[in-house]
Amino acid sequence: MTRRRVWGLALAAFAAGGALTFVVMSVQEDETPPVTVGAARSAASPVPTTRAELVEAWTAELEDAGKELPEGWDLLTTDEIRGRYLHQRMVNAPSAEDVDPGMDRRVDG
Description:
The protein has 109 residues and is mostly helical. The protein contains four helices and no strands. Helix 2 (51-64) packs parallel to helix 3.
């Protein structure tokens, strides 16, 4: 065989391999998992947004604690009312002991 013929066969084999690779890759199915869409989240915020809603929620939290709105509360800004409401909500939250009595006991191993 001549040198030219060897190079021609090598080039033809390379081209055939490339074409075969292209055909196999185009026929092969994509194995990546399909894109899924999660459950829609509620757009509503758990914290009231308007001043009236904040005052109502704050009043309810204070009533749970056996308190009333402080004097001069109507002079507070909406952000101050929100802060006091959130603070009272945290104060009224149950402690770990109320949720799971004996939770703090140690386990001897």
